[in-house]
Amino acid sequence: MTASVPESERQLLEQVCAAAGLDSHGAEAVRLAENQIWRLPGRVIVRIAQAGQEAASAREVQVARWLAESGVPAVRLADVAQPVLTEGRPATFWEELPLQGHGSVRDVAALLRQLHALPTPDFDLAYLNPFVRVSARLEAAVTLSEADRKWLHGLLGDLTAAWADRPSGRPDCAVHGDAWPGNLVRARTGPVIMDLERFSVGPPEWDLVSTAVRARTTGAVSSRGYNDFCDEYGTDVTQWDGYPILAGARELRMVSYAAQHAASNPEWRDQAQHRVDCLRGKAGPRPWSWKGIL
């Protein structure tokens, strides 16, 4: 992958590392998508976010320090002053984990149960917005027909109104915001929380809905696996009256994400269209078979 990295992106990495007092020589590109992820020699991971994400990156640093102080297993910051801002793009630096793979559904449930039990931190965490970037992603989804995009924008409006008037649930707390097994992983030391970008204050049900949707909507989690998740956490979010609203928001996020990236990756166009067709009632009842992208 490193051979095909555009020179401009490698130059940005060099500037970011220099600002942090690190050497980028020998860096390996791990993932170049909305955010750039690089591995430096010495087991340091560099994450370069998009322009305009300065506040979010600073919040990630605060969250990482709070989780460490709270004893929650999570990715830890590298020992450099951060975040670093270069060409308008904020970067953060992390200790590389000895990963063994994605976490199991029980790992996800155990970590969420520990996280949701913590007192809300004393620094400012924004309130959860389940629709962040969705509108922009739909605008960028140029492979979809105008009719499909209009319908999805209408669904976004309906869900936004429903979210504002959702049924009451469990008390608000700090939530991960994107709690699936790729972000709550298993290292040699045990399960660990990663990807702190979407941390916020909000209903804990939002974190639980991610796994429920993978079971009820996409078919990525078996019925037995979902029962294990509920047993480990201690509740089944699908029994809550507000579940259809939060599940709808999560489904729309997954559709808009695929549709945005299909615009620049032809191999994902069929999957993006399939997801839209599912929401529009053209692919039969749930669970649908949604393939992962990126």
Tell me what you see in this structure.
The longest helix has 20 residues, at 243-262. The chain has 294 residues and is of the alpha+beta class. α3 (105-116) packs parallel to α7 (223-233). The protein has a five-stranded antiparallel β-sheet with strand order 1-2-3-5-4, sandwiched between helices. A three-stranded antiparallel β-sheet has the order 6-8-9, with helices on one face. The chain is 41% helix and 15% strand. The relative contact order is 0.12. The mean pLDDT is 94. The protein is built from nine helices and ten strands. The chain folds into two domains: 2-96, Phosphorylase Kinase, domain 1; 102-279, Aminoglycoside phosphotransferase (APH), C-terminal lobe (Aminoglycoside 3'-phosphotransferase, Chain: A, domain 2).
